[in-house]
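note to self: dont lose this again. the chain is below, predicted strucutre after it. 194 aa total, dont forget to put it in the shared folder this time
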Amino acid sequence: MKKYAFVGTHGAGKTTLVNSLKDRFLRDFPEKKIEVINEVARECPFDISDKENGAQGSIATYLWITFEQIQKELVAELSEPDYIICDRSVIDPEMYHEGDFDLLHTCMIHLVDCYMDKEYNKIFVLHTDDDMRIVDDNRRCMDIDFRNEVNDLFLDHFEEHESENIFLIPSQELFSDEGQKLVDKIYAECFLGL
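---
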């Protein structure tokens, strides 16, 4: 089994890309099994963030999303699929949480780092630029400055962790005229062993 995580700030195109990869995989490999973990934050019973200004939810939000992500991934593994694709990962809540670095938060960061290191075969970090708009889904924060701050946190975090299994993907390229070539390259990296 291989597990891939697609991470990054909101509005970067993760869900669109994950769905495109899944649909193509199902057409190309009907004999293989794939599980998709959809973004769990959309199911969170706590406030995620203020829709207008990006003020963060509580520590309960951060904990709920982190543990729900882990639980969904573990349940998906029980069905013994060939591939698991995660629309977000356990690192995403950490990038959004702005709370005090108390003992609980420090422990959570350590848990997430340990999980990240051993659980994902490849991590695709989608990052935006200032010109990309945010689609209003009635949950995510529409403040561009906040989106860009989160975007920078993802880039800073993953640029520090150089690895042949981490891929930085400029979102604007996905939505450009050449976008299909980039999707083809990501698909090959995931499913064709290239």
